[in-house]
Write a structure and sequence with these properties.
mainly alpha; Arc Repressor Mutant, subunit A; 23 helices; repeat; transmembrane helix
Length: 535
């Protein structure tokens, strides 16, 4: 498996869109978007669906449709749709390997996202710009853009986007051969995907990339399991590029595990897809050459490997060249062809040195990316700590404010009750003093002219225009002796129930027109005394 395989895996899945692909045919979609009677939203949705259906299979045709999409969005002044057009154009040119053109469209999309102040669109485009930086091997910039996108997704609680960017960061580390870090990020992304409704093809990509990291760490059994999980998904979603990489990987894995029959089966599937998609055919042919060698069919292996060697051109990767020369070296060595084996060994060492040099460069890049990433993490940590400190300060202020308000409220309540109690007490004393004063005034109305004051029943009945029954009269006389006596004490003295006393008192309050008051009984007896004293 070559570096090109990794980059293919990394880039194919990173095309962002919010429209789900339906089963609508291209012809039907065209009818929908060209029908001016349809609502603009329906026409735009049809164009977006067309992009999802055809951007990989027919990129050039899709670019023509995107021109129509752009004109319609421009005509309708649909700014967000203009963003999607620019972003989609960038996606196609990125997959075509034209990174400069892709970047120009992504920058246009970024400008629109900033204009709209739309964080989600900004996060999408930051991720795609990061993809271009990977394509250009600027891994520091890629890491920075992916990290900024991740931060937005985390702040907006977008779990799908967060998983997407964790996968992208894992892919950076995968490419620069920091497999431990790559696996860490992929596992985080996978953990989120298990609890979130994330598109199956994205989960498949995570498994593909975890499998690749396992393969590079010589963890072939783990690699097999993850690639099989990925392949099971992509066979359902019909993502042929992903299926191609999965089958090729499993063919190589089973060669390493010594399962040549299974390796042959996956190699055949891989070759069918390579020929259908017109890509990576030489990698497929090399797998068959390796299988022939493993099965001790050395002459067949030489024939197939030499055929691959003859087809190599300037675009062929260093890894592929090294693999071809290594296989031919082993084949000629088995045939005791010293001259040819030495010739192939020299070529193998030449390309192996180039690969080692690239690995050394990656080591430098890994350190640079690590330093950049550590700095970013430190800055994010400081920012997070600052935010936490501000939050704690606000919470502390709120707590103090609540406590202060509670103290004020309690103090206010206590003041109110104390003030009310004091007023009630003063009123009670005033009533009692007035009652004593009225009782002690010498008057001709006092019956028998004795020192002890007695109520005048006749005057009272005339004043209230009601006849007082025995209970009422007993209650008034008890109150005359003790104006603050309780209902229970009155009941005991009158040989009645508390309920009966309460009922009698309520009736007399109406007779004497006693208003609501805390000391109704005291006011009642005061009124009775006043009436009794009247001439």
């Amino acid at each position: 498996m070559s570096q090109k395989s990794v980059i293919t895996i990394v880039f194919l899945f990173l095309i962002s869109s919010t429209i789900l692909v339906g089963q609508t045919s291209t012809k039907e979609l065209k009818t929908i978007w060209e029908n001016t009677k349809n609502a603009d939203s329906i026409r735009f949705k049809a164009l977006a669906k067309y992009f999802k259906l055809n951007n990989q299979a027919q990129p050039d045709s899709t670019l023509i449709v995107l021109d129509y999409y752009y004109d319609l969005a421009k005509e309708k002044n649909a700014t967000e749709e203009l963003f999607h057009v620019a972003n989609n154009r960038g996606n196609i040119y990125r997959l075509k390997g034209e990174s400069d053109i892709a970047m120009s469209y992504y920058k246009a999309a970024e400008s629109i996202a900033n204009q709209l102040s739309d964080l989600e669109l900004k996060a999408i485009i930051l991720g795609n710009i990061g993809n271009v930086h990977i394509q250009n091997k600027d891994y520091k910039q890629a890491t920075q853009h992916f990290s900024n996108s991740l931060k937005i997704y985390q702040e907006t609680h977008n779990k799908k986007g967060e998983s997407h960017m964790l996968t992208s960061l894992g892919s950076v580390f995968l490419i620069i051969q920091n497999y431990e870090a790559a696996l860490e990020y992929y596992q985080k992304a996978l953990s989120i995907s298990e609890n979130t409704a994330i598109e199956d093809r994205r989960i498949a990509v995570i498994y593909l990339n975890i499998g690749w990291a396992n393969f590079k760490k010589n963890q072939f059994e783990e690699a097999r399991k993850n690639y099989e999980k990925a392949l099971k998904i992509v066979e359902q979603t019909k993502d042929k590029f992903f299926a191609l990489n999965g089958n090729r990987a499993l063919a190589n894995i089973h060669i390493n595990l010594g399962n040549y029959e299974k390796a042959t089966s996956y190699a055949k599937k891989n070759m069918m897809l390579s020929e259908e998609l017109h890509t990576d055919i030489l990698h497929g042919e090399l797998i068959f050459a390796r299988l022939a060698f493993k099965k001790n069919r050395v002459k067949e292996a030489i024939q197939k490997a030499e055929a691959v060697l003859a087809k190599l051109d300037s675009n062929s990767s260093i890894e592929l060249r090294a693999q071809v020369f290594e296989l031919l070296y082993n084949c000629y060595k088995d045939e005791n062809n010293t001259k040819k084996s030495l010739e192939m060994f020299e070529q193998f060492i030449l390309y192996k040195d180039s690969i080692q040099l690239e690995k050394n460069n990656f080591a430098v890049i890994r350190e640079a990316v690590k330093n950049e990433f550590d700095l970013k993490l430190y800055e994010n940590k400081l920012e997070s700590e600052k935010a936490q400190a501000n939050l704690k300060l606000r919470q502390l202020k709120n707590t103090f404010y609540i406590i202060f308000c509670a103290i004020l409220l309690i103090a206010g309540i206590l003041f109110y009750f104390n003030r009310t109690q004091r007023k009630n007490k003063e009123k009670r004393e005033e009533l009692l003093q007035e009652i004593n004063r009225l009782k002690n005034i010498e008057s001709s109305t006092v019956i028998g002219n004795s020192k002890r004051f007695e109520l005048n029943k006749t005057k009272i009945e005339n004043a209230i225009a009601q006849k007082l029954n025995e209970t009422d009269w007993n209650i008034l006389n008890i109150l005359l002796n003790n104006p603050v006596v309780t209902n229970k004490e009155i009941a005991e003295k009158a040989f009645m129930s508390v309920h009966g006393i309460g009922s009698a008192l309520r009736r007399m309050y109406l007779y004497f027109d006693i208003k609501d008051s805390k000391y109704k009984k005291t006011e009642l007896i005061r009124e009775a005394i006043k009436i009794s004293r009247n001439p």
